[in-house]
Structure formats: C-alpha cells, structure tokens
Amino acid sequence: FERQDGRPFRQRLLVVANRLPVSAVRRGEDSWSLEMSSGGLVTALLGVKGFEARWIGWAGVNVPDEIGQRALTDALAQKKCIPVFLDEEIVHQYYNGYCNNILWPLFHYLGLPQEDRLATTRSFQSQFAAYQKANQMFADVVNKHYEEGDVVWCHDYHLMFLPKCLKEYNSNMKVGWFLHTPFPSSEIHRTLPSRSELLRSVLAADLVGFHTYDYARHFVSACTRILGLEGTPEGVEDQGRLTRVAAFPIGIDAERFIRALDTLPVQEHIKELKERFAGRKVMLGVDRLDMIKGIPQKILAFEKFLEENSYWHDKVVLLQIAVPTRTDVPEYQKLTSQVHEIVGRINGRFGTLTAVPIHHLDRSLDFHKLCALYAVTDVALVTSLRDGMNLVSYEFVACQDLKKGVLILSEFAGAAQSLGAGAILVNPWNITEVAASIAQALNMPAEEREKRHQHNFKHVTHHTAQEWAEMFVSELNDTVVEAQLRTRQ
Ligand code: ADQ
To answer: How far apart are the first and last CA of the chain?
Structure first.
C-alpha cells in the first residue's frame, strides 16, 4: 500500500494490556519521569515492523487529580502510550482481587480461593463487577482513539471482557485476544462462577490466540461443554459466526541476547562470575517469586540431589534469582518465608565455612548481569508447576552457544512443547525424578549436550518474538477479510 504522499502505508496496531510498558514516577504537580520496562511483550512488539504501534493500559499509579492526569497523558504520548486511569478501589477489586486472586490461580490449576482468601478482597460478585467495570474503562479509551482500519490486540486474562465491550461499540473493529497464561482444562474452567460470561465475551473477538495447541483445545472444549457451541478445526461457531482459535507460541528477541554477550559490561560480569565460582558447576534458577514457578519444589529436589551425591557437595552451586511480585498478597509473603526457610536449612546442612550450596537472591537483575549469569551456567532449572510458555528457558538457550549447558524443564511449561527435544523434561512434583535429572545433567557427555543445545538454539533463534507478533496480526487481518467474504456470499 502507498499513501498519496508516496510514504508506505502502515496499519495502526492498538496494543491493549493491563500495564503500559513504562513505569511512571511523579516529580511534581504536573511533571512525571518515565522509564521503559523490558518484558517479553514489550520487546516482542517493539520489533514488529510494518505497523504503527500504540499502547493502551494502566500506568501502575493512582492519579486522582486532573492536572496530574493531563501531564501524565502528555508525557506518555511521547512514548506512544495512552493511559487508562483506574482508582485505588477498582485496582484493589479488579487487579488484586479478580485478576490475581481468582483468575491467575485458577488458570494455573491452583483452584478457586477459599473463603478466607475471598474475605480479604470482599465478595466474588463485587470483584467480578469491578472486573467488568475496569474492562469497560479500557474499552472507552480504545474507542476514543480508534480509527477505521486499526487492528486492536487485547492481551491476557485481565482483559477477557474487553472484546465484547469493543464490539458493542463498533462491530467492524478488528479485535484479537491473546492469553499469556495456560487456558486450563474445561473441568477447571467450569468451577468459575462467571465461566459463561467470560467465554462469551472472548468469543466476540475475531481471533483468539494461545501459546500452545493444548490451551486452544481446552478453550474450544470449554465453549462446547459450557456454552453448547460447535467446535470446528478453525475455532468456535455460534449461529453462523466463526471465532478463529489458534496457537501462536511466543518467542524472544534472541539476537538482543546474543549481541549483548559480546559487550564489555557482560564480558566483565562473566569474568567476575567465573572467578567467584571457579571449580564449581553453576546451576541457575531465574523466576518471579510466584506459586506457579515451583521454587520450593526446585530447592527440595536440589537438597535430595545433594543427599544422594556426596561427591558433588563442594563442586556445585545453585543460584536462585527470584524477583518478588505481588508483595502485599499474604500467599506471596508466605511463599517468600517458606523459600527462605528451606534455603537456610539446606545451607546449614551442606554448607562449609567457606562455601554454601545455594545462593538465593530476592531481586531483579539488570539485563547485562542476567545475560552473564545465563552464559556461565552449566545447568538451568525451570520447575514451573504450570506456565503459559516460560521465556527464561528461551533466554538461557540463547546465551549458551559457547557453553552448551543443559536445560531441565518442567513438562507443565508451554516451552516443553518447543524445547522438549533438547531439554530434560521433568515432572516438578516428583522431587526424586528432578534430583536424578540434576545428576544426569551434570554428568552429561559433551557430545550429547551439543546435540541437545543445537536443537533448542535453532528453535529459539528461528521462532522469535517478532515472528510471533507478525503471525498473530497477519492472521487477524486475514480472518476479518475471510469473514467479510463469507457474509457477502
Ligand atoms: P512470566 O510469568 O513473567 O510471564 P516468563 O515467561 O519466564 O514468566 O518471563 C519472565 C521475564 O522476566 C523474563 O524475560 C525474565 O528474564 C524476566 N525475569 C524473571 N526473573 C528475573 C529476575 N530475577 N531478574 C531479572 N529479570 C527476570 C508470563 C507467563 C509466561 C509467558 C510470558 C510471555 O506467565 O508463561 O511465557 O508471560 O507470554
């Protein structure tokens, strides 16, 4: 396409996610400083060529006054971001309550909250009402900025009600929705009191995407069993209207990691780490400190490995880097104490005056340090109890082209479907099996490590974040054109 002025036509992509990809800090009544954050979604979408992307989302801060809202809106516009302002009560009920206390655990097979957990955030019904209200507020902002021909891409479990709200505004809007978590078996989804409303709302989208074919299949079965609709190989059909459902496995910007390895700061960190852990094999865990990541299970498996393999006691170290998240939620506080308690016990049991077997850090690491850690690691341990994909496993593989380290990967992470042939797959609940896999990884011959690594490296460098985003958006465009052709026939 070309515009009249000869410049190439670039379709606008409105990316709608709960959080904007920036952190905002107020400096004065009408001044803000912004810092771009660098999650998987941000890097994926920044790399998408051929689109004019705009972000719509919550800035993560409460801004009750109009002066502050206007100033923040102006500052964000420079970064192509558009804010949705949510007040504290809505955030509490919608974000802490319905999203993080109900949908997040349910979608990861941890079940619905018991009464005591619900009591902390009021009743289920009021949380669901806040969820709907917040989604409507997102829809209002999208609708205000929408121009004909734009593609609207909604992200994640926070915004399941959004496709319906958007289509009510404008049935011609091209709307896609992508879920970053697993979609659970229909038997789990059935337990959710608002199960039907959420499914119906998602089905208002033109295209619905998941990381794996299994999650897509679970979603289609939920629609057939709970709503009585027809599932087809293309998606879900309701009275002649098809919602396309498909798998779009996410990737990373592998080149960014590979390039970083040659930079001076990363090389310096690598040197320091090699000196610090000379003579010991390095095992690594990098996770958000979340129930789903299986951190206690991982550390207990490492303890079992030490119990059974005295030869390795002074020859291996486990570095567990865990970024605290949702720190105001009691379950997460309990998890932190539990992890600290287990680490303390194991270090007391197997440590010496000069070395401990586990280094546990409760913090985020900057990009350069993270790359260096990935590069010096001999064995990476990903033991998620459930995980939509798990990008840490991809990042580790991208940084291992020299060392050819081994990836131990939970079979319950989406990544098991793409990196399964190169990794050692484990059931993280089976601590004996994980301990045996640690021994297998540490003793693996170089030739086998090389073969496994090549398989995964090829996958990670070929199936990138950019490819993921481009495939989703182009499928969304095609789906809408096909639907228009069908209605004309
Ligand atoms: P997350 O649950 O956040 O993402 P993951 O996919 O592993 O999980 O991504 C985490 C990101 O945070 C990685 O880029 C990693 O480098 C970074 N990170 C984690 N711990 C860190 C630390 N201590 N220091 C610095 N950086 C750290 C959700 C879903 C996943 C899905 C992604 C993308 O839960 O299953 O893969 O979205 O769709």
So the answer is: 26
CA-nearest residue for atom 37, ligand 1, is 180
Torsion angle, alpha carbons of 201, 290, 110, 303, to 10: 150
* 219-240 burial: b if 16+ Cβ within 10 Å, else e: bbbbbeebeebebeeebbeeee
Residue ranges around ligand 1 (CB below 6 Å): 40, 180-181, 250, 286-288, 321, 323, 364-365, 370, 387-392, 395
Residue showing tokens 């018991």: 114
Distance CA 256, CA 367 (A): 10
CB < 8 Å & 24+ apart, contacts of 73-79 = 75/24, 75/31, 75/32, 75/34, 76/20, 76/22, 76/24, 76/34, 79/22, 79/34, 79/36, 79/55
Q: 20 alpha carbon to ligand 1 midpoint, in Å?
A: 16
- 391 CA: nearest ligand 1 atom: 6
Residues in contact with 154: Cβ distance below 8 Å, sequence separation at least 6, in sequence order: 16, 17, 162, 163, 166, 175, 176, 177, 178, 205
Query: Is residue 88 a contact partner of residue 328, using CB atoms and an 8 Å limit?
Result: no
**Ligand 1 center to residue 37 CA distance, Å?**
13
pTM of the model: 0.95
What would the pLDDT profile of 255-278 be if each residue is shown by its tens digit?
A: 999 999 999 999 999 999 999 999
Binning pLDDT at 50, 70 and 90, where does residue 486 land? confident
Residue with CA nearest ligand 1 atom 28? 180
Q: What is the pLDDT of residues 325-347, one digit of tens each?
A: 878 788 889 999 999 999 999 99
Give the list of residues 6+ apart from residue 165 with CB closer than 8 angstroms, or none.
135, 136, 138, 139, 201
Average pLDDT, the chain: 93
What is the Cα Rg of the chain in Å?
23
Ligand 1 atom at minimum distance from 361 CA: 23
Q: How many CA atoms lie within 13 A of 384 on its CB side?
A: 24
- Which residue's CA is the closest to the ligand 1 atom numbered 18? 287
**What is the mean pLDDT of the segment spanning 362-370?**
93
What pLDDT digit, counting tens, does each position of 346-364 carry?
999 999 998 999 999 998 8
Contact 318, 283 (CB under 8 A): yes
Q: Which of 38, 110, 252, 286 to mutate to test the pocket of ligand 1 (most atoms within 8 A of CB)?
A: 286
